[in-house]
Design goal:
Two copies of one chain form a homodimer.
Chain A: H1 14-27, E1 36-37, H2 40-47, H3 51-63, E2 67-70, E3 74-77, E4 82-90, H4 92-98, E5 103-114, H5 117-120, E6 130-140, E7 143-153, H6 170-177, E8 182-191, H7 194-200, E9 207-217, E10 220-230, E11 235-240
The structure holds a DNA duplex.
DNA sequence: CAGTGGTCTAGACCACTGC
DNA sequence: CAGTGGTCTAGACCACTGT
């Protein structure tokens, strides 16, 4: 609802120029949260472009949460201004290899049991479900870099009962044997208890970063895992550039 | 390079069906890392659709890292299988409000100085730069939920020198006054030192989650901030569904 | 019920890159 | 230099939703 003199810089694809120009309006607060931005049709005539091109720019702004789009009403600058950051969680084997180090794997324990109460009461697994509980650690040049504590749903993955997991990390094994359809993550800090400290070769009570991942296949939780990293490890999150592609 | 009998499920937009069908081939390992997937032109004839629709599906798979695309060569299943997760960092005010609690802000300290050595040697700020150093905390219903430790580049934002920051949180103030173009984050765990423990009302040495954010405007770092959350706080990361939109 | 965005088409030209 | 993906166009129909 202000002047819509979008300035394209002529650099790169047209839809990125449009995205950049609009993102600039928003980050510079010329278009403020809640403001309606021009309709696709208006931008088409203003910028002398086709609607698909304008649409591609607006879609990507919507994907990144900078704008909100509503049929019949129009597109609006998002009221909840937030920053998105793409968090990429690579397989630890790849990560260690990318560091130029030698990957190592050690199984700590592996046994079949009923799903424990803390997981059933959190509605992660149904009560009485048979699961495998695996604890293991991952090393880079012999130094522990990750402690893994994982439960695998035996109803969904019966083959896991016959796998010893003493050579193959459970993550890799699962990737090979189970098609997953969805994953959900939580990330938080924990203090190392004595056992964790010993496994990771760190001091007791040292702060560690923990990623919790729940993986589904269809509507069933296939596996639930804690990945605990020593606290000195920084997990880098990707850059976010509102002016660039999403 | 396998059979390309893609099964569309007829549910939702065509490009999502195509994306889902290809994602299933990949997660089920029928198409394995490194395999070439059908060309856009092949998919067009196989699926009887236009190229733009196929392209939209493949683009979104590439955005999420499931496939890699190379001109003249084709599209390939990514060799580095990793999981993407969109990490959304909302303004703390909004987050507290969304929780149905009352937001509170308290300035701890605010003073102008030269950029400290730890930031200049990390090439975050140039040596001798004038900055404002702000420490403050954010409360939900009177309970501390975030401690903020921020530096603002006075060369890029001279107006920050005249702002007392005793009413307005620096994050909000900056959003209002500075157009930013890029942000980079790192996330890691820290142990609460006595001062932090006091500010957050937690025990000394308790594990805390810290988000480090560096924000640019053009090619200059505008602000650098540590956001430290009590460790019991879980930061939820978005879901990732390879079969769904990116 | 009218107008917006969501999707789709059947073309097109071009840049890049393996061969 | 030929073939792939990257981009763009000028249309079209439809679903949803404010009014």
């Amino acid at each position: 609802m202000t002047d819509l003199a979008l300035q394209l810089d002529g650099d790169g694809p047209l839809y990125e120029q449009i995205r950049r120009a609009i993102a600039l309006k928003i980050t510079s607060r010329q278009w403020r949260p809640g403001d309606r931005i021009p309709f696709e049709s208006e931008l088409c005539t203003t910028l002398q472009t086709s609607r698909m091109t304008v649409n591609k720019a607006l879609q990507s702004l919507a994907d990144d949460g900078l704008i909100v789009r509503r049929r019949k009403a129009g597109s609006f600058v998002a009221t909840q201004q937030s920053v998105q950051a793409p968090l990429t969680i690579a397989k630890i084997e790849d990560e260690v290899a990318a560091d130029g180090k030698t990957y190592g794997y050690e199984l700590v324990s592996c046994k079949a049991l009923k799903a424990p109460g803390k997981l059933t009461s959190a509605h992660i697994f149904p009560r009485g479900l048979d699961v495998v509980h695996i604890q293991c650690r991952h090393l880079a040049d012999g130094v522990p870099v990750l402690f893994e504590d994982r439960y695998i749903n035996l109803k969904a993955v019966p083959a896991a009962a016959d796998e010893p997991f003493n050579e193959t990390p459970p993550g890799s094994w699962l990737l090979e044997h189970v098609p997953w359809t969805e994953a959900e993550h939580a990330i938080y800090a924990v203090s190392a208890d004595p056992r964790l400290a010993e496994h990771l070769h760190i001091a007791v009570a040292e702060a560690c970063l923990r990623i919790e991942r729940r993986t589904w296949a269809d509507d069933e939780t296939v596996t639930f895992v804690h990945l605990t990293y020593p606290g000195n490890r920084r997990t880098l999150v990707g850059r976010f550039q509102p002016g660039q592609r999403g």
